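debug: dumping io for the single-chain case to check the tokenizer round-trip. Nothing else runs in this session.
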Amino acid sequence: MITKRIIPCLDVRDGRVVKGVNFTGLNDVSSPVELAKYYTENGADELVFYDITASAEGRRLFTDILCETARTVFIPLTVGGGINTVEDFDRVLKCGADKVSVNSGALKNPELIREASRKYGDQCVVLSADVKRKEGEFRVFAKGGREDTGLEAITWIKRGVCLGAGEIVLNSIDTDGVKGGFDLEMLEAVSNAVSVPVIASGGAGNIEDFITLFQTLPRVDAGLAASIFHFGEVRISDLKAALKKEGIPVREV
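debug: decoded output
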């Protein structure tokens, strides 16, 4: 049986991990190096590292802090932020990433997904979609949730998978940081539309939210969260013990 993955997310700005609500009001949390080491040693299945202002600022992802972070990680590491070319994939992978997450760069040039998957394999290409309800549909946003693309999310995500994305991270802007539970409606629509793994992001507030996620939507492969892990509100070992008790398969801590 395939185990469900628990994935902490490091949103990095100016070399520090930050966290906000609905993609705004970012506050300093900690060093990505320190947090990465902590999560590696305390049961995380994977780790996501986002340079969250790279695309909006029109620059490349900071590689110095990434290289330092990657050296402390012994679990799969996904990295995103400012990924616009195949060369960006190459640079980030050489820093120690296992997978590369594309968002705004793929929106500008969808062929980037095809080119990267052909060169590195679809298992390496993660399509991250920042999605918000607008005018009665799920709408894709770019540049860290700042720019409405006008694209309907399910159509865009299906296109990304057809181009070669091997995994989807669905970031619900509506539930981000609110801690009211994952966006089950949005996640159901996406997981029913594609056959690749789907990672739920945005809204986790407690252990019960993960239990509800996996029991309600068994096709969702992983739950991603930030603040509840960063601030010690939920320990990954406790979360996995609770999931296991509910019959939800997880990797042992």
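debug: round-trip ok. The radius of gyration is 16 Å.
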